[in-house]
Write a sequence for this structure.
């Protein structure tokens, strides 16, 4: 076929697909910088820390030039983010002096956030400032509005099994780039032609806008923000290519950068050839075409006319990465059995909120008590005139008796995870009851804010059907379809239950595991049958579970109480409750007493 | 600060230019017609313009007359809702009035309790040795609107405070040696996404009307939304000007409806129908029933009707009662769907009779 290769040692060329992905990532960086200069824009980078992400950041930093980049430390306190009282200055001057928070500091800059560290209030505050362009501070006796116009980079390090990034955040980010498939060999290539900006802005025709409105819902992205982002990115791409009016191919590229990495479904395939392919992914990425992707302006004259919507969709689906569909499916069932145990940032996270603040009380700071300066000053305030002396230059006189410390009511955040034996003939009924119990518990526990999750085990493995949540809506969706039947992989179920307990403990919650089974395992950890080995492994898993120290209840749902189930409960250090006629109401009652 | 002030005064998207979201817009208009309705809760999908609608409403509200220099913008005409200072003022008429915009106050999630309730003004206390109350957001919102985005994420202790104040219409402050009470009557508007957390039932019940907000699916509507948003972002001032007359028309509708409201007759037959609906739905307590009566009246007033008819009740029942149904975890149907089902039955039976 080919003659003798030249004898020079060199790295093999990077796969074309990786280079194409890297091109897109670079284009996204350029667009981000350009859009950040004009206004606000957000981007999500799916990648863990590493050379690829560093290279991408370096490119972006070069494009951003002077624009300052601020990192949001993980586990940032709300007063650091929003702004709060400047202790030193307040004491010095005797006036309440506010210290700017990170959101105000980031005005006219770029904010970098790790999605894993972002909790509800952090996310909500960042989203509000990102939307409004200012931050409203109503804290510590001060009321203030500070400008806060920033562009946002979110590093999403979550793997498929992890808790996904907060939706409120995802919804606000225009560009979505996945660096995980890119190897370092692809980084050398830089095929992006930088085009001089002939035009400051680009027009979008009514026709193109119609396509922009119509395309995202096909990918399961119904939020109107997505369409608005798509319009903005399409415009930026046109400007980037030196065009005064956006064309169809600009939109195509914009779809690739905005939609594909966050799609939750795929547009209905235009052809019928896929009908019987239930398991196969969509058409493979066309590698031969991709080399031409980044610079489409060569064939301007041909694409000038807007291609019909079908063709645009076609072109996009043809560029979908391999196995996207499977990824989507996997994400939806949200298995916790993640291969990527190592390097998970969120794993060691401690609960950030220390519970509900109570009114502060007199006392000295130290040994875990934090000074409540405002309360202290308020106590001292009425006495200032009396205490002030000519010879004492200090503006404020504070006595030991004025000191107040903050108090928090320990948050009793708890979670209940059901592990339900869905094997055999009674499975469906039992699962339905467990589902009912989950929903009842959630429905009854608004005030307690408990989280509820569900593990189902059947066939070869156990599976997390519902990651612990306190949203009734999400629970209902996840539980809509419950498969049943098959063998009883009890050992795997206990392993998963232990893993879930540890996860919950890491999040600062107190988990209670409720196992519903008759105790007779017949599938071993490796998925093979055999009662005795399966039973031994189940006992071993149960002992391992006991080391988590999590509360557990074993509900024996067999027709008669069984010795096996009882032994299992003992090994797990779990309460044993025979419950031959479990139903949703008795189940939730049992859990409440166990709690 | 000047940049910040400019930001805060940025032109809001005109209420009348909002495409679709008819229930939400309608509910907000009703709350302007009858502020005693108990506020509006908008729950639903992200990016559907919930916040835009609330911000737009502020421009629609006719300005109010308030006692000069009063922190709580007391209404000199309503003597039973005055603050302590205005009530103690024998010459209130001489104090004079000023015309102010209806306050629409944001309660941000990170707000601390002292800023919500009000507290001792430390600066005054430290510098001048004066014990002075510094009013909080509840005072600012008196006679206006208090808006909480992501209301389902609000800290529990703030929810408790809000529930107290919303029930009594006044804020009682007992802290740091201060002891006072001031009027805090406001329309509570909340929005949020239920997927991020459920609302406590006590707070849910406090809202007069609730609206499920969904992303519009009609392609033509989506295109129109995007076109208008693009036009707005391109030139905010020009866009606002183009919609000014539509906004003025809506403002006039509110004013006309307010005038009509006191004279609007609610026939006994309509009251009976409302009772029948509430019994059939099994809503807890009387609040649902009272709200439905008020909502139907406000709706009739907005429509320019002379009496409250079954059609008005029918239109308002899902908004007034949907969030008050006993939750049935095993019934997957949305609350408003369940209300519609029962309404269909009741109205079909009436047709037959």
């Amino acid at each position: 076929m080919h003659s003798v290769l030249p004898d020079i040692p060199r790295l093999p060329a990077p796969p074309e697909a990786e280079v194409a992905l890297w091109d897109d990532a670079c284009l996204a960086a350029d667009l981000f910088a350009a859009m950040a200069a004009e206004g606000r824009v957000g981007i999500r980078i799916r990648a863990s820390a590493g050379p690829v992400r560093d290279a991408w950041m370096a490119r972006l930093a070069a494009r951003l030039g002077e624009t300052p980049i601020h990192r949001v430390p993980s586990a940032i306190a709300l007063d650091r983010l929003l702004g709060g009282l400047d202790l030193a200055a307040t004491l010095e001057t005797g006036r309440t002096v506010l210290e700017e928070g990170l959101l105000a500091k980031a005005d006219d800059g770029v904010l970098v956030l790790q999605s894993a560290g972002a909790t509800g209030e952090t996310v909500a505050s960042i989203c509000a400032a990102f939307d409004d362009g200012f931050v409203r501070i109503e804290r510590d006796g001060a009321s203030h509005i500070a400008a806060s116009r920033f562009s946002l980079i979110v590093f999403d390090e979550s793997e498929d099994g992890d808790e996904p990034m907060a939706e409120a955040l995802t919804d606000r980010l225009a560009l979505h780039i996945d660096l995980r498939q890119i190897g370092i060999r692809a980084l050398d290539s830089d095929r992006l032609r930088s085009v001089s900006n002939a035009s400051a802005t680009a027009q979008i025709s009514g026709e193109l806008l119609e396509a922009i409105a119509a395309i995202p819902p096909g990918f399961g992205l119904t939020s109107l923000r997505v369409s608005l982002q798509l319009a903005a990115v399409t415009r930026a791409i046109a400007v980037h290519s030196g065009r005064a009016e956006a064309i169809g191919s600009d939109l195509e590229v914009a779809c690739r950068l905005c939609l594909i990495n966050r799609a939750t479904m795929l547009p209905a395939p235009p052809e019928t050839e896929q009908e019987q392919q239930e398991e196969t992914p969509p058409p493979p990425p066309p590698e031969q075409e991709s080399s031409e992707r980044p610079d489409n302006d060569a064939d301007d004259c041909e694409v000038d006319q807007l291609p019909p919507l079908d063709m645009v969709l076609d072109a996009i689906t043809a560029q979908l990465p391999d196995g996207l569909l499977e990824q989507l499916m996997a994400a939806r069932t949200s298995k916790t059995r993640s291969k990527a145990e190592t390097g998970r940032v969120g794993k060691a996270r401690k609960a950030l909120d220390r519970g509900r603040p109570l009114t502060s009380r007199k006392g000295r700071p130290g040994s875990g008590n934090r000074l409540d300066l405002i309360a202290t000053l308020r106590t001292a305030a009425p006495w200032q005139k009396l205490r002030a002396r000519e010879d004492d230059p200090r503006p404020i006189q504070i006595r030991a008796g004025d000191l107040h410390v903050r108090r928090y009511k320990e948050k009793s955040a708890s979670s209940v995870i059901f592990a339900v034996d869905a094997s055999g003939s009674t499975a469906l009924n039992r699962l339905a009851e467990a589902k009912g119990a989950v929903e009842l518990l959630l429905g009854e526990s608004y005030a307690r804010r408990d989280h509820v999750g569900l593990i189902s085990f059947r066939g070869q493995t156990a599976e997390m059907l519902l990651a612990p949540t306190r949203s009734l809506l999400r629970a209902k969706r996840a539980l809509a379809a419950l498969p049943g039947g098959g063998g009883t992989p009890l050992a795997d179920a206990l392993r998963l239950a232990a893993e879930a307990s540890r996860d919950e403990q890491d999040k600062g919650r107190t988990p209670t595991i409720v196992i519903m089974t008759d105790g007779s395992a017949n599938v071993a950890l490796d998925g093979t049958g055999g009662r005795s080995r399966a039973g031994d492994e189940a006992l071993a898993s149960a002992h391992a579970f006991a080391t988590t120290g999590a509360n557990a209840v074993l509900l024996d749902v067999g027709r008669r109480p069984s010795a096996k189930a009882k032994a299992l409960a003992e090994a797990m250090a779990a309460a044993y409750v025979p419950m031959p006629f479990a139903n949703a109401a008795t189940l939730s009652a049992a859990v409440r007493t166990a709690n | 600060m000047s940049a910040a002030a400019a930001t805060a005064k940025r032109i809001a998207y005109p209420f009348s230019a909002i495409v679709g979201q008819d229930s939400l817009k309608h509910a907000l208009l009703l709350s302007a017609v009858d502020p005693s309705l108990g506020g509006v809760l908008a729950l639903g999908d992200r990016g559907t313009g919930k916040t835009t609608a609330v911000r737009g409403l502020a421009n629609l509200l006719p300005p109010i007359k308030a006692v000069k220099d009063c922190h709580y913008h007391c209404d000199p005409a309503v003597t039973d809702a005055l603050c302590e200072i205005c009530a103690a003022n024998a010459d209130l008429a001489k104090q004079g009035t000023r015309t102010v915009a209806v306050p629409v106050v944001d309660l941000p999630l990170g707000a601390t309790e002292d800023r919500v309730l009000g507290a001792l003004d430390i600066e005054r206390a430290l510098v001048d040795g004066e014990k002075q109350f510094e009013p909080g957001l509840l005072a600012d919102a008196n006679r206006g609107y208090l808006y909480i985005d992501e209301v389902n994420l609000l800290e529990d202790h703030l929810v408790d405070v809000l529930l107290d104040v919303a029930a009594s219409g006044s804020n009682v402050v007992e802290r740091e040696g201060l002891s006072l009470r001031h009027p805090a009557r406001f329309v509570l508007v909340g929005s949020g996404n239920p997927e991020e957390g459920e609302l406590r039932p006590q707070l849910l019940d406090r809202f007069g009307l609730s609206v499920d907000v969904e992303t519009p699916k009609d392609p033509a509507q989506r295109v129109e939304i995007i076109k208008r948003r693009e036009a707005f972002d391109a030139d905010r001032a020009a866009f606002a000007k183009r919609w000014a007359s539509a906004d003025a028309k809506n403002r006039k509708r509110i004013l006309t409806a307010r005038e009509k409201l006191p004279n609007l007759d609610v026939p006994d037959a309509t009251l009976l129908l409302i009772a029948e609906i509430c019994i059939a739905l099994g809503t807890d307590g009387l609040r649902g029933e009272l709200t439905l009566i008020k909502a139907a009246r406000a709706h009739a007033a907005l429509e320019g009707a002379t009496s409250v008819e079954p059609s008005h009740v029918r239109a308002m029942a899902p908004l007034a009662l949907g969030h008050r149904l006993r939750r049935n975890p095993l019934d997957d149907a949305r609350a408003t769907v369940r209300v519609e089902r029962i309404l269909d039955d009741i109205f079909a039976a009436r047709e037959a009779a």
